[in-house]
Amino acid sequence: MVTDAGLHATYLDSILERHGHAAASLLQILREAQEHYGYIHPDAVDYLGAKLHIPRSRIEGVATFYSFLHLQPHGEYRVLFSDNITDRMLGSTALMQQMCQQMWVEPGKVSEDGLLSINTTSCTGMCDQGPAMLVNGRAITRLTRQRVQEIGLLIGNRTPLDDWPADFFAVDDNLRRKGLLLDSTLAPGAVLRAAVTLGAQNIVEAVKTSGLRGRGGAGFPTGLKWESCRNAQGAARYVVCNADEGEPGTFKDRVLLTSYADLVFEGMTLCALAVGATQGYLYLRGEYRYLLEPLQAVLQRRREKNLLGRNILGQAGFDFDIAIHLGAGAYICGEESALIESLEGKRGVPRNRPPFPVTHGYMQQPTAVDNVETFCSAALAIQMGAEKYRVIGTAKSTGSKLLSVSGDCPRPGIYEYPFGVSVHEVLHDCGAVNTRAVQISGPSGVCVAESEFDRKLGFEDLPTAGAFMVFDDSRDLFEVARNFVHFFAHESCGFCTPCRVGTSMLKQTMDKIAAGHGTRYDLNEVEHLDKVLQTSSHCGLGRTACNPVLHTLKHFRPAYENRLKSLDFEPAFDLDGALARARQMTGRDDAGAHLKTEGA
Ligand SMILES: Cc1cc2nc3c(=O)[nH]c(=O)nc-3n(C[C@H](O)[C@H](O)[C@H](O)COP(=O)(O)O)c2cc1C
Ligand code: SF4
């Protein structure tokens, strides 16, 4: 029973009531409890455990997995500076130092009076308007020295967040180049009306004919996925929209959810019709918490127009509704099976695959998981006709792609192109000059150097989930890779040893090189580590964790070698030194008692 610390069983009861006392909603329940109380009090853990009939260990296991949930107080104001490399390039490190000094707080600690804590967090998806921070989960963009100082004063005066200047929280779309998708002005329901006439089987066929491939990164053919889900045996079917958008440098889904939400939901409902689903979920990353109420309002409007609910558009048996689940700061939950675990109220640990979500997804039932942009593109393909859609882009990458452009360019933001656009063309359009490198598709993607700027974006050459981070010739690509490696070490879910240990070793190696203690041995070790991670990681995070180092080593080796203590091969372990005691005991110190050294 909740007894003290201002915790009221009645409030927890109201949360439980809202979620139908379902253990599968544990993450949502914990998140809402924390939003109200500031953290998850031990009494609340006991109370929820008793009410949901789950052990305390499960609740604590979930609460400790997600970086936005806390079992300890984290201050009345929890300030988290976004720590993507693009935030750093805009001065986030100095701004955080400034705030720590102003507020007399050490990074990562709670102030003595319990007022605030200041720390970093992984990319918040505001790279086009950084540096950014979250205060009690609310995004603040365009930080400057002055803005940070004002925030310090507001916190010092305990001003409620609702009374802070509204422009602190402004998040712009920054639509720089529109195309097929961003130019579309489809009225809500237009695609569904056409789809109802087509019928489920023909929708699947049309999506297959359109050549549409998933926009979340892997590029799986969407029509095939929908067909497998439709044909799978199950008591119920589900549609899940992956809006976790955690890949550093990616923010196009944020914009689609802000200004094209009807199209996203139209695509999800289209998919429901095609696969025979009655329930859908939008998994929204915790960093986009501010979008929750506007999205719920769009859903409500659609219900009122009979575009959601029972007998949609008067079609008997076409029943479908969408609920929104909020994530809580875990990049791994973007991986589709981890996302489903998280939707079920568990730790976001990727599942063994096969079976795949299309046959055994949410609640072990057939589930179509697709990216936000994929749903929009599917709706467009149906509206304009599959044959017309498939001629846009390239043979294996049909349609258009949204890019999230950030870094060293005067016009960061969202750019839409038909697939097949070259890196060079995007750089030209965003006004980038003296570009040294572009990181395509985030840390798990590819680092492209100047000699490769004629390469083309698409599944034939450079696949991308959308991130396009630009680095000019003033940037140190070693530091870029080091930032990405820290990100992977932080975000590894810890389920498999090679990834848990390997990402941490990689981080230590990069820190060692940065401190001037590295040798060629360390560089060789990264290649070795990559082989281990490639072959033994359970999911894509581990398999791609070494990419940032390997790619930057390939193009910018001097950035590493200039930092090495020695260019020679020096093992980390001094074998000859370890034999000193043996030599002493045998009274030998002749050349034969030493390991041969190079050149000897
Ligand atoms: C570590 C990791 C993170 C991922 N993050 C995302 C993400 O944030 N958004 C997304 O759509 N897909 C993400 N994916 C890909 C999903 O697993 C999945 O392929 C995708 O949601 C399928 O949708 P699509 O076919 O429309 O691309 C991630 C994959 C991995 C391995
Ligand atoms: S590879 Fe890493 S992130 Fe993926 S399951 Fe294993 S530990 Fe978790």
Bound heterogens, unique: flavin mononucleotide, iron/sulfur cluster
Straight-line N-to-C gap: 75 Å
- What Rg do the Cα atoms give? 26 Å
Number of beta strands: 14
CATH class of the largest domain: Alpha Beta
Instruction: Name the CATH architecture of the largest domain.
Output: 3-Layer(aba) Sandwich
Widest sheet: strand order? 5-11-10-14-12-13
The percentage of residues in β strands lies in 5-15%
Roughly how much helix do the residues carry, as a percent range?
40-55%
The total tally of domains equals: 6
Give unreliable regions as ranges: none
Looking at CATH, the homologous superfamily of the largest domain is NADH-ubiquinone oxidoreductase 51kDa subunit
For the sheet with most strands, the description reads:
6 strands, mixed
Shape: globular
Which structural class should the secondary elements be placed in?
A: alpha/beta
Give the count of helical stretches.
Answer: 24
- The average pLDDT value, as a whole number, equals 94
CATH topology of the largest domain, by name, is: Rossmann fold
Write structural notes for this entry:
- By secondary structure, the chain is α/β, with parallel strands linked by helices.
- The chain has six domains: 9-65, Arc Repressor Mutant, subunit A (Orthogonal Bundle), CATH 1.10.10; 78-172, Glutaredoxin (3-Layer(aba) Sandwich), CATH 3.40.30; 177-390, NADH-ubiquinone oxidoreductase 51kDa subunit (Rossmann fold, 3-Layer(aba) Sandwich); 400-473, Ubiquitin-like (UB roll), CATH 3.10.20; 478-561, de novo design (two linked rop proteins) (Up-down Bundle); 574-600, no CATH class.
- Helices cover 42% and strands 12% of the residues.
- A hairpin with a 5-residue loop joins β10 (400-407) and β11 (413-418).
- α8 packs across α15, α18 (477-491) runs antiparallel to α19 (497-514) and α19 runs antiparallel to α20 (520-536).
- It starts with 8 loop residues before the first helix and ends in a 14-residue tail after the last helix.
- The mean pLDDT is 94.
- Iron/sulfur cluster is lined by residues 332, 350, 492-496, 499-500, 537-539, 541-542.
